Amino acid sequence: MDTNEISFENLPKAVAYLVNEVAEIKCLVEKGQMSTVLQKRVPINIEEACRIIGKAKPTIYTLVRKRLLPCYKNGKKLYFFEDELLEWISKGKKKTLAEINDEVEATYRTKSKMPKTGGRK
Questions:
Q1: For each successive 10 residues of the chain (121 residues), what is the average pLDDT?
Q2: Residue 70, CB half-sphere, CA atoms under 13 Å: how many?
Q3: Domains of the chain by residue range
Q4: Among 41, 62, 96, 115, which has the minimal tally of Cβ within 10 Å of its Cβ?
């Protein structure tokens, strides 16, 4: 539909056209989201896990043995999920000096507002 054709008489036709276009866009977005979710849940082998987290095989085996790294075992093979490895990496974030400073200031502010007790009358 050409945008130059829109007038009061053909307004219902233009609205119907837009409703159809929005429905098609919605279908495309839903399909894109579903494929992304499905791709993340495909198990990967240890070589791919090494590549994702940037560690050598012996290190991966050590982390698995200590139960620090999320994995699955079927027979003698280890399997991993990419989303779980990325989550494991994000849990190990080191705080910046600014974040530590903000926490200290917030703690100091809350403690300074607390009434002082313990003095003798």
A1: 71 87 90 67 92 95 94 93 92 89 89 65 53
A2: 13
A3: 3-40, 43-91
A4: 115
